[in-house]
What does this fold into?
Amino acid sequence: MDETLVTSVDGHPLRAFSRPWDAQKPALTFVLPFGTKYDIAQPLFEQLGARFNVLTWEARMILDDPRADVDVARITPAMHVADMMSVLARFGVARSDVIGYCSGAGIALLAAQQYPSSFSRLLLVAGEYVLPRHTCARTRFQEDVDALLPLAAKSKAHASAVFSRIPQREGVASDPVRRAAALPFSRPEYLHRFGANYVQYRHVRFLEVARSIAHTALVLVGRRDEQVTVESSALIHEKLAHSRFHVDPAADHYDVCRGNTTIERRVLEFLSPPSHPPADDRHFDAASPLRTTAPTMGLK
It folds into this structure.
């Protein structure tokens, strides 16, 4: 993909990436998880590039030069949305489909809420919405992150102490996608910024945000996902006015990035122009029954 430097509203430079531009193709914006490089989902971008002008950008500041003095107060959900709109403006995109992956799903929802006319369809893949504990269960990974990242956010010294206690996760080194997703945990400087970002992100009431979204949406999650829960995606789906929901029984958190997977095929099918309107926008498609928990108020 081609790199373009984009200046955001506060003057911060962003690294944006696009496929070779074709004025005859519609735009599709991929919202990356915080702290990942653009090429984590390269196989999916190759597939999407046949039909779309694919755009993405790397989240501000988290993976900047470790020696840089970063103002972590400027790493907020509001600024991530502003960055997204700056990227679209730089490429002259008036309207785009959106794929939000992991924490990128939350930023996609916020952008659609704040700028509804700028977006067409929403795909929320393996979304991390940091829903309150009383709303649904959390994974072990989410519990660990919620304990460690607020400590890492306190200071660089705290981040160094947390970093020294993080064990090497089994299988990360041999899996390029998991290795790419683990970059925020690879240096104490990144971890400090990532933690500060997380503290801001977890305050967003995503169930309330979802309730205000009128776009056609597809919510996707894998049954084997160890990072986020099926239940949290189900609750987001329930709040969306025009949503389809699919649980892939074989998919883990990273399958959408790997290429040639069933969850990738679901993404491509959803983005294909439908031959007729769906009979039921609020569709549940899964291989096994879904267990959900109540209540569903998104207050923290």
About this structure: The two ends are 39 Å apart (CA to CA). The chain has a mean pLDDT of 89. Strands lie at 2-7, 13-18, 27-31, 53-57, 96-101, 119-125, 216-222, 242-248, 283-286.
